Amino acid sequence: MTTTAQPGITGNVLFYQQPEPLSPEVHGKMGVRSMDGPFGFARVGHAIPLTVGEFPPAAMTGPIIFVGDEKLPISVMGLNAGENMFLREEGLFEAGAYVPAYIRRYPFVFANDDNAKQMVLCVDRAAEFFAETDPDLPFFEADGQPSQYTKNCIEFCNNFEIERQRTASFVQLLKDLDLFETKTASFTPPNADGTPGEPQKIAEYFGVSEEKLNALPADKFIELRDNGALPQIYAHLISLLCWDRLIALTLQKQALAQPAAANS
User: Fold this and answer.
1) pLDDT at residue 194 tops 90
2) Three-class HEC string of 238-251
3) Of these four, 130, 200, 204, 244, which has the most CB atoms within 10 Å of its CB?
4) What is the mean pLDDT of the segment spanning 180-189?
5) How far apart are CA 54 and CA 212, in angstroms?
6) pLDDT band at 264; cut points 50, 70, 90
7) Is residue 166 part of a domain?
8) Is residue 191 assigned to a domain?
9) 134 — alpha (psi -120 to 50), left (phi > 0) or beta?
10) How far apart are CA 154 and CA 194, in angstroms?
11) How far is CA 43 from CA 75, 101, 157, 164, in A?
12) Residue 259 DSSP class
């Protein structure tokens, strides 16, 4: 959704409904309240942007794919739009599931200020845990200076921006080497008699071609190894095995929902 909370702020940012530039004048007595399950907002996030440094830990949770003309890397966390398969009803992730930094930085985000020609730190006032009064973690101290909580969040967002730029360079490298190809994920459901049914396409996306990777000249391959890109590429390729995990989780959820629907 478009960030129209303040004049001059532009951009489309997943999850953020009412982002506002953080300031002591507006948010001086505000902050956030502690919640046992703070990730409820991510329930609708089935495809979450990912930075390249997150590829190895994210690879064991779900497929890492590239989408769009920009080949944006994302972590697939559900097969159906608006359904995160790894988020519990109480707003916590399943044990062992990787939580992308994109989710962990919420409710803060950097946005473009067209008037000032710079990035400004915003906070989503529509966040479930946003506190207008008596916050557990205030944004500012009594003297108007950022609280330690806000300082930590600023540092996290700064590091995220650095990683985002590093990710753009990584993707550009893959483009320059012509390593991308179109891939598909499919599922073959069984017929009633147990025989294989008709294959169903689940997703179409961009991924690294193993054939193109293996055909690189030796010097280019060594360059990928030496600049640290090769482990990230292999993490992406290994993560594609997790399509089967997502399919299994989806079928399990559907099976559990059927008896509940029949009893309602």
Assistant:
1) no
2) HHHHHHHHHHHHHH
3) 130
4) 91
5) 23
6) low
7) yes
8) no
9) left
10) 55
11) 14, 15, 22, 23
12) H
Report the C-alpha gap between 178 and 158 in whole angstroms. 31
Give CA separation, 253 vs 42, 78, 88, 90, in Å.
18, 11, 12, 16
54-63, 77-86, 96-105, 167-176, range with the lowest pLDDT: 77-86
Structure tokens belonging to residue 233: 């590429």
Scanning the chain, the segments in alpha helix (DSSP H) are 24-27, 55-58, 101-104, 148-176, 210-214, 218-226, 229-239, 243-263
pLDDT reported for residue 5: 31
pLDDT of 7 over the 70 cut: no
Distance, in Å, from the CA atom of 91 to the CA atom of 43, rounded to the nearest integer, reads 8
| Domain presence at residue 75 | yes
d(CA 142, CA 138): 10
Instruction: Categorise residue 219: left if φ over 0, alpha if ψ from -120 to 50, beta otherwise.
Output: alpha
Report yes or no on 186 lying in a domain: no
Domain count, the chain: 1
The boundaries of the domain holding residue 83 are: 9-180+200-263
The structure's pTM equals: 0.88
Check residue 114 and give its pLDDT: 64
For the sheet with 130-131, list strands across it: 130-131, 31-32, 137-138
Please report how the helices 218-226 and 229-239 are oriented relative to each other, as an axis angle in degrees rounded to 10: 90
Q: CB atoms < 10 A from the CB of 240, how many?
A: 19
